[in-house]
Amino acid sequence: MKKKRIFSFVFALLLLFSVPVTGMATETDPSVASGSHSMHAAVPLAGSEKLLDTAQAVIAYELNTDTLLYTWNPDMRINPTGMVKLLTALIVLERGNLDDMVTVYRSTLDTIAWGAVSAGLKAGEQVPLRDLLLCVMVASANDAAAVMAAHIAGSQKDFVVLMNERAAELGCTDSNFTNVHGLKDENQYSTARDLAIIAEAALENETFAEMFALNNFTMAATNLSAPRYFITTNYMMSDEYMNQYFDYRVTGGKPAAATSADRSMICTAQVGNSRYLLVVMSAQAEISEDGLVVTSFGNFVETKKLMNFVFNSYTVRQVVDQNQALYQYAVKNGRNDVVLQPAEDVWVLLPADYDKDAVVYHNVVDAAGLQAPIAARDKLGVLQISYGGLVLANCDLIAMNPADLQEPLTEISDRVSSTPKQLEEQWDQLLLWGGIALAGIVVLVLLIKLIVRAVKNRHVRRMQLKRARKRKRGR
Fold first, then answer.
1. Residue-level pLDDT at 287
2. Cα→Cα distances 140→38, 145, 259, 268, 466, Å
3. CB 68 within 8 A of CB 44
4. What is the C-alpha radius of gyration for the chain, rounded to an integer number of angstroms?
């Protein structure tokens, strides 16, 4: 009995240590590094050397890869002028019902400075909230912005409170809004970074994105007005009014002006897989000698230069396939190893002439902490992709296969120790039935021998009788 126990224990150990344990020898970073993979990144991928001639602040942000490509004075506080309307529109979409009928009040119209861009709204006019929002997004109408704000919050003043609260929620740290339309106010300021943050959040709203891309809009007739037709003030997106600035790459936008000479622009532009959010603030326009006509819109000119730089110098590339098996690790108390794969495809922004060997991959995985059970698609680490010392993307690493819990040694030993007993029982049964079969065979052989002998004896007796009869006849 003692020998059987020793045999069972040894056999159990052999089973336990026969489980293969292999792992890829991989160097891992101890932490997830920071890089240009954020609107708040301190170091943009293309740096911050001055590229444009007159713009006071600039940002180029690639939306598909969330990469801050280029900045110039991104946190300088500047009058945001009409770009304030992007935040106004976002709050209206978040808090309002676009099917509401809104009444225009004289008290609201009186707050708009004479000569400011307007939709020509009239006191007592009833307009759908959707049409008012389109007047703001397409024609940059100041009167429509004020009417919407009063409808949503009860007053423009209370709406401004909502604007500052929402900006703070989005992470805008260098902005202060004092009105809903962007008309001049010395206490109102923002930055290229903050405006880009607001625009990115607003573009996630499908209705905003559609309106941001409209070239024109016809406002239906109201109780006090015939239909009105508006053309976008973004001349880079439409050649209906002015064709020298049209650029097919621009997919949406909002120009703004502090003065005739001080002009800004925020827009989206796309070529292939690259889609940018561009902010150009306080670019200088050229004015005729009499000061009455803008001969060159500096915001459009500077935006085109910025687009040429980003699209010619950088490209979006896929660097990780979500179906790849990347790493293999042993799992504590697991029946088998676990293989890691990326949770998704990863695309990054790289220089157009980038060196493939300079793309660096780091996996951040607590290999020693991997313990069974592990289910397929469990998150087990992070994959970092960097270039030129900057992290461009972070991607979750997930389990490609499950790693079930290995049975405890005692259970294996019990199962192994029970095997000899089962074999003994089977052997006893085999011997029993074998003995019975053998006995049957022996009996059968003996019976055959007896039959053969009886037949032979009978034959002999017959022959003897036959010979005896012949002798009697002969006598």
1. 92
2. 29, 8, 15, 17, 142
3. yes
4. 43
CA 146, 151, 153, 158 dihedral sign is positive
Per-residue pLDDT, 458: 78
Please report the sign of the dihedral spanned by the C-alpha atoms of residue 233, residue 118, residue 83, residue 286: positive
Question: Given the structure tokens 């790289």, which residue do they identify?
Answer: 350
- What is the per-residue pLDDT for 382? 95
| Placement of tokens 């037949």 in the chain | 455
Question: What integer pLDDT is reported at residue 25 of this predicted model?
Answer: 30
Question: What type of residue sits at position 370?
Answer: L
CB atoms within 10 A of CB 285: 20
- The label of the residue with tokens 């109102």 reads 188
Q: How far is CA 265 from CA 47, 56, 83, 156, in A?
A: 21, 12, 8, 25
Averages of pLDDT over each 10 residues, the chain, 475 residues: 39 32 36 71 93 98 96 98 98 98 98 94 98 98 98 98 98 97 96 98 98 97 98 94 94 95 97 97 93 91 98 96 94 94 96 93 91 95 91 93 81 54 68 76 81 78 73 64
Sequential DSSP letters for 45-114: TT-----SSS-SEEEEEETTTTEEEEEESTT--B--GGGHHHHHHHHHHHH--TT-EEE--HHHHTTSPT
**Which residues, including other chains, have CB under 8 Å from residue 335's CB and lie 6 or more apart?**
19, 372, 403, 404, 405, 406
Q: Give phi and psi for 456, each to the nearest 5.
A: -65, -45
Residue 453 CA: distances (Å) to CA of 21, 146, 442, 450, 461: 72, 129, 16, 5, 12
**pTM for this model (two decimals):** 0.78
Q: How far apart are CA 154 and CA 145, in angstroms?
A: 13
- Which of 128-161 are b and which e, b meaning 16 or more Cβ less than 10 Å from the residue's Cβ? bbbbbbbbbbbbbbbbbbbbbbbbbbeebeebbe
**Tokens 């912005």, residue located:** 145
- Name the one residue in this structure whose structure tokens are 């000061």: 291
Question: For residue 13, is it left (φ>0), alpha (ψ between -120 and 50) or beta?
Answer: alpha
